[in-house]
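Private note to self, pasted from the team thread so I don't lose it. Backbone tokens:
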């Protein structure tokens, strides 16, 4: 009787042990997820801090990185880097602190910020492809109007930016080199448009200059590097989706159990 009574008891203990083992496995997986999310967002936050620092440095000390567009004077490389760095830093901070503290509020905020960024990216991408022709037309028009500010003392950064892109991309003007004629005079282009750059070479009608416009050159660069840009875009998309999935997994666990796991 004693032996037969002991068998159910041992079976019951085995079931309890198995359930305890499953619980520990789930706890370990969630704890691993918590620290993976923390480390990932810590790196994300540090990258955001670095971008913000570079953007501030460019804004303060480098006039070379100015805007090409007179319609959007704030749309400079420095301001774009600052905006991206700030967004990355805030998002990484929310994810990092939310994961380590297991805060439902911070995890939900992190999820919402990532969702808003993802939706904004998709909307902008769709609008860009839908209105591509109109975007190209308006961009060319705006850039051509911006050439009129080339010799303006308050737009030294714009002048430097045009000189840099024309020298690096081996192009001249927006559509072609004749875009500079209404600005600098007939048969006159910036010296950086010359195939062999020298002082005053742009005023010599016999000096060979780059014939292709910079707008087409930039479009060609994007086309030639579309695979790299697409890969980077997919990596960013995957990281955003994984961040949202991990944050919701941790959020749902805390909400369901009503308690945090000890580290």
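Design output:
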């Amino acid at each position: 009787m004693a032996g037969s009574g002991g068998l159910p008891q041992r079976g019951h203990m085995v079931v309890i042990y198995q359930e305890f083992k499953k619980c520990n496995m789930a706890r370990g997986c969630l704890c691993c997820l918590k620290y993976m999310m923390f480390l990932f967002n810590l790196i994300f936050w540090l990258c955001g801090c670095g971008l913000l620092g570079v953007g501030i440095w460019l804004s303060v000390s480098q006039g070379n990185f100015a805007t090409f567009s007179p319609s959007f004077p704030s749309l400079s490389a420095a301001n774009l880097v600052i905006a991206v760095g700030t967004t990355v830093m805030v998002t990484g901070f929310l994810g990092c602190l939310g994961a380590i503290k297991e805060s439902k509020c911070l995890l939900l905020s992190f999820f919402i910020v990532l969702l808003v960024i993802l939706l904004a990216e998709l909307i902008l991408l769709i609008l860009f492809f839908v209105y591509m022709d109109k975007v190209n037309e308006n961009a060319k028009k705006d850039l051509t109007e911006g050439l009129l500010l080339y010799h303006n003392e308050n737009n030294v950064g714009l002048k430097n930016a045009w000189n840099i892109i024309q020298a690096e991309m081996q192009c001249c003007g927006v559509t072609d080199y004749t875009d500079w004629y209404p600005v600098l005079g007939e048969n006159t282009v910036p010296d950086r448009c010359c195939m062999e750059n020298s002082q005053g070479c742009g005023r010599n009608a016999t000096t060979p200059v780059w014939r292709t416009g910079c707008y087409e050159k930039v479009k060609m660069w994007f086309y030639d590097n579309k695979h790299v840009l697409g890969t980077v875009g997919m990596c960013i998309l995957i990281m955003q989706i994984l961040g949202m999935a991990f944050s919701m997994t941790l959020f749902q666990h805390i909400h369901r159990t009503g308690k945090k796991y000890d580290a």
